Amino acid sequence: MAQISIPGSPAAPNGEPKPREPWTIEAAARLYGIPEWGNGYFGINDEGHVVVMPERDAKRAVDLFEVVAGLRERELGTPVVIRFGDLLRHRLREIRGAFDTAIRDHQYTGAYCCVYPIKVNQQRQLCQEVRDIGSELGFGLEAGSKPELLAVLGLTENLPNMPIVCNGFKDSEFIETVILATKLGRHIIPVVERFSDLEWIIRHAKRYMVRPRIGVRAKPSAQGTGRWQTSGGMRSKFGLTMTELLHALERLKQEGMADCLNMIHFHIGSQIGDIRAIKGAVNELAHIYCELKRQGAGLDTIDVGGGMGIDYDGSASSSSSSVNYGVAEYAADIVYRVKSVCDAAGYPHPRILSESGRAMVAHSSLLIVDVLGATKFPTDATGDEVRGLMEKEGSRPQPVLELIDAFDALDQPRVNLLEVYHDAAQAVDEAMSLFNLGYLSLPMRSATERLFWAVGQRVLDRAKKKGAVLGDDLGDLPQILSDIYYVNFSIFQSLPDHWAIDQLFPIVPIHRLDECPTRRGVLADITCDSDGQVDKFIDARSPCKPMLELHEPREGEHYYLGVFLLGAYQEVLGDLHNLYGDTHVVHVSFDDSPGVGDWDLDEVIEGDTVKEVLAYVQYDSEDLIRSMRRDVERAVKAGRISVSEGQNLLKFYDVAMEGYTYLE
Asked: Is 313 helix (H, G, I), strand (E, B) or coil?
């Protein structure tokens, strides 16, 4: 049964509510769960602004509100994605350090390499940062398609020792490119996903006289957890069964290439929440590795694939939006499991690869959006107001009378809140039926709706004072009474995983956190789609909550919200619903040198213009402008519009083509 906890003033021993404690920034941090999901990278300063601490050092913090104000001065409005290269560097070093520690602690003699699958976020600037930081740490890149392969080969110019893993479906051209890249001197490993891949590798290796490093993906019996658990197991999309693995090794032996089979690979799913699933799968993979070694394969590398998740909701659990382990535990378990199996079989410890893309980049990017306005449901109606309307109309509809009785009952000191709410809900349903039959006027319907919302608000307020927990019958009440905040962004472009798979992302006002939020709301984007809203938010007391605590927007003030942990998948999965294109992206770094502000604007990638998104769907902007000009001239000739009015329209049309697709 769904329950919603309504935080309020706890009751004193005499039953009266205690005085409300003063609001603090610590209370704001607890409300939005920042210490839990922030992983030490995010906090709140004394001004009530969200800060980013790229190195988990409170003395080296970037004030997000100041950054957004600075971007506005540079005519870069919201929505805008902000990337923090310093945070990315810290995160990659943390992964490197965790495996180095595990290798040292367990006396592991093999090496470790983290490989970034660029499918997680293929944006050039981000991939270049990962490459540059990764080259210092001995990391590599992964390509899962032909375009990604070409991108990775270009990114790794003059980096012959950087490992490149090639996953995904392949054709002859793909394999030929890999073989030629091997001859060029690249450390590149094509992974056999289907038996036909192996035949192409053998053919092109013989043609170009190359001894390639070959990997094979196994289909383990183990599966991950959460949304992507079907990525593993016997019926997974990619990989070879145990029988096919043995056939592949025999085929390589026939060609005298068994020593070229250097890597065994698997993948059991993304965002694996339960560490036990990882332990079991790695143990199975290590046994497969040893058995293939025993059969004569030249294996020296184990690729444990992706799956290391991050804690989106801060619950530190095995839920689909969280993980019950940290980076250190993940590394220690993998190293220990591989070592134990190899020691028992008497084989040297292999090099370990992991493809931890989400864990590498998710924290380093966030989205800033601004609120355009809000719709509130009026809760200020009174029983006397509705009585006056009934006298004016000369009618006394029974459902309306019952609704007034429910409202008045809440004045009593001891009242059953659930019973009152049930009575009010029944009354308003019957009143709507009267309206649909023509027996209730529109003004009376309006007054009835407002009185019902007033009853609901009073029930909620009374429950809050008691510190009550709302069960199923009242659990929807906060959502029914919540505001709708209209936000300048597209969920389909910027938060596709929230829309498609209900992925939770932390959302927090980036300022005014020294003030207690007085409103609860859902977020509606600016697309013309009823699905274009965020109505699931992280909550410390339940899997999710249906509304977010927000502040009352002030006249003439920008009210900014931050959406965090967006570095993985969101930018590359976004679509052009309503032709809202890519947002602005800026790269920000911490700057502790003397001057104004503690941050530097390193790079600006302006968002799509209207002209660009129209071109994506095969419109020629020049043709459209010419068509519009002809239409204006016809209207001028017909006297429907003046010449100056027509010119103003054409100027707007022309300027808008070069403008941002979002509201400015």
From this structure: coil
Is residue 99 within 8 Å of 353, Cβ to Cβ? no
Could you say which of 440, 457, 479 is where a domain stops?
Answer: 479
Residues with Cβ within 8 Å of residue 503, at least 6 apart in sequence: 312, 320, 321, 497
- CB-based contact 563:494 (threshold 8 Å): yes
In a domain, 49, yes or no: no
Where residue 343 sits, what CATH number does that domain have?
3.20.20.10
Give me the phi and psi of 36, to 5 degrees please.
-80, -55
Under DSSP, the state recorded for 240 is B
| C-alpha–C-alpha distance, residues 51 and 23, integer Å | 19
The set of residues, in sequence order, having a beta carbon less than 8 Å from that of 324 and lying 6+ positions away, is 273, 274, 275, 316, 317, 318
State the total domains in the chain.
3
Q: How far is CA 185 from CA 61, 163, 211, in A?
A: 42, 11, 11
- pLDDT: which is higher, 345 or 231: 345
| CATH number for the domain that contains residue 417 | 1.20.58
With contact defined as beta carbons under 8 Å apart, do 663 and 526 qualify? yes
| pLDDT tens, residue by residue, 638-659 | 999 999 999 999 999 999 999 9
Residue 558 lies in a domain: no
Domain residues for the domain of 415 are 383-479
Q: Is the sign of the CA dihedral 48, 54, 58, 60 positive or negative?
A: negative
* 281 and 399 in a common domain: no
Statement to judge: residues 176 and 258 lie in one domain: yes
pLDDT tens by residue, 351-403: 999 999 999 999 999 999 999 999 888 877 888 888 888 888 888 889 999 99
Residue type, 98: A
